Amino acid sequence: MEFPYAIFTFLATVLLLLLVCFLALQVKFVTGKSIKDTKYPPVAGTVLGLLFNFNTLFEYLTEVAEKHPTFRLLAQDQSEIFTTDARNVEHILKSSFDKYTKGQYLQEKTKDLFGQGIFVVDGVNWRQQRKLASFEFSTRILRDFSCNIFRKNAVKLIRNVSQLSMANDIIDIQEMLMKYSLDSIFKVGFGADLNCMEGSNSVGSTFIKAFDDATSLVYWRYIDPTWKVQRLLSIGFEASLAKNVKFVHKFVQEVITKKKEQMEMQQNNDKEDILSRFLIESKKDPDKMNDQYLQDIILSFVLAGKDTTANTLSWFFYLLCKNPQVQERIVQEIRETIQGNSIDEFLENVTDEAFEKMHYLHAALSETLRLYPAVPLDGRCAEADDILPDGYKVKKGDNVYYIAYAMGRMANIWGDDAKDFKPERWLNNGSFQPESPFKFIAFHAGPRICLGKDFAYRQMKIVSIGLLRYFRFKLADEKRAVMYQPMFTLHVKGGLHLLAISRPD
Question: How far is 104 from 113, CA to CA, in rounded Å?
Fold first, then answer.
């Protein structure tokens, strides 16, 4: 059958128009950008480079940063500035905090999923959420309640791993840790039992997938310049994103409704979970702190409590498999510090007092976060023209990103062995020695430093101590490359498949 000439002409015209648009976009990229002006960061390309290098995004940024600690990628309306200079990080996160905000650029891309949550808002909304959350995280009630939940769920996790270990089955430890983290954050944060680890709540497992897919697709908006068109036409990845967001929001609204009903029935509510406390606070300003506002707050806590902990622990076990001598040294520290006959008794003895004696474990977790930060890339938007401490100018509207993933690999920050997994770098005569938060940026820094830092360390220690006490881990396939999935948080792409070998008592 002869191909119709009219169709051929039409397709050729479309391709020509696309080419013209692409060239016009490139012209706009470089027009008026002061490309050769040494007062501004050197230009390493355009933001289209992020698209072409998406699958290895953070390696790409690291390679550029090794040549230029601060550099620019040109965008249509502004420059995207990237830095690994700790002085610049301190400048935008602390010294000039009021000059740099999350900005409309980020909020436009994330509001469909996260709305007015604490991680994406500025000003009054941020201060209100920060103040309330800061108070709640400082209470002993929440600390004791959360640690109790972390221990109980760790017991379930150990028993699940034990069943798979006895059957010599391969374990996707990341999937199991995601279920553990989601069960824990929903109980601590919202007083809800999802029972994902027990497999009795298929809706909870569906929520995990929908939430992970949604965050991944939102991240893609930073790379694909056509996302607004796709959203308008409800096609492509935007159609999938809308479907996932709808499910996530419906699920969270049901959690809020159920919690309200429980609080009305329980006159002597113990108010242990975070949502209960926010609901009590919402009564003071019901117009402001409505269900939509509470939904946004919840999803921010889910992102912080599920992804960061589960992802960090996944990379932690990956690094222990690649460095078995570190794994055994941690086990030795565990055996010297914590006793217990049964799993329940052993976990009950995993306390803050025990943590204080376990400097090597803390160092190994911190070293994991240095190389595989839970949030590999973050930034702020300049609200006014500025000059960074390294001397480079920033124009109003420019986005300034600090590359935590690359910073952990910079020889000028950590030494020539920066890319090596070496917990000993954190120890001074056997005691843990912290680093500047502007150098070790895993928990951010300045006024917006992570409120849940201590909670995250406690949870990671409880889980890692429990699993390493009873199992020795190794990679199921030593030859399989382990890579990340580019998104807001650093997932292991395709899961982390391990074998768990029971340790003798």
Answer: 15
Instruction: Return d(Cα 369, Cα 440) in angstroms, integer.
Output: 8
Sign of dihedral through CA atoms 352, 358, 362, 364? negative
Rounded Cα distance, 155 and 144, in Å: 17
pLDDT interval class at 19 (50, 70, 90):
low
> Is residue 96 within 8 Å of residue 88, measured between CB atoms?
no
Three-state SS across 248-266? HHHHHHHHHHHHHHHHHHC
The helix (run of H) or strand (run of E) holding residue 244 is helix 236-265
Task: State percent of the chain over pLDDT 70.
Answer: 90
Give Cβ neighbours of residue 66 (< 8 Å, ≥ 6 apart): 406, 410
Q: What gap in Å lies between CA 472 and CA 498, rounded to an integer?
A: 10
Q: How far is Cα 446 from Cα 88, in angstroms, rounded to an integer?
A: 12
Q: How confident is the model at residue 202 (pLDDT cuts 50, 70, 90)?
A: confident
Short-list 192, 446, 176, 462, CA closest to 301: 192
Distance CA 177, CA 182 (A): 8
**Residue 125, both tokens:** 């909304």
Cα–Cα distance for residue pair 97/497, rounded to 1 Å:
42
Q: Closest by alpha carbon to 468, among 309, 310, 357, 313?
A: 313
191 in Cβ contact with 261 (< 8 Å): no
| Alpha-carbon span 45 to 417, nearest angstrom | 29
Reduced 3-state DSSP string for 99-123: HEECHHHHHHHHHHHHCCCCCCCCH
Q: Please give the helix or strand (H or E) that residue 280 lies within, else none.
A: helix 274-282
Q: How far is CA 452 from the centre of its chain?
A: 13
Put residue 429 in one of left, alpha, beta given phi > 0 → left and psi -120 to 50 → alpha: left
Distance CA 36, CA 504 (A): 65
The answer to whether 41 touches 72, Cβ cutoff 8 Å, is yes
**Res 369: pLDDT:** 98
pLDDT value at 56 more than 70: yes
Q: Name which of 101-115, 121-135, 470-484 the model is least confident about.
A: 121-135
How far CA 164 is from CA of 313, 435, 483, in Å, comes to 19, 39, 24
Best CA proximity match to 375, nearest among 403, 399, 400: 403
- Rounded CA-CA distance 435/456 in Å is 18
Q: How much is the mean pLDDT over the chain?
A: 87
User: In b/e form, how buried is each residue of 474-503, taking b as 16+ CB within 10 angstroms?
Assistant: ebbeeeeebebbbbbbbbbeebbbbbbeee
Listed in order, strand segments (DSSP E) in 16-135 are 43-46, 70-74, 79-83, 100-101
Residue 184 CA to residue 281 CA, distance in Å, equals 23
- Tell me: pLDDT of 4 over 90: no
- pLDDT at position 169: 96
381 is in an annotated binding site: no
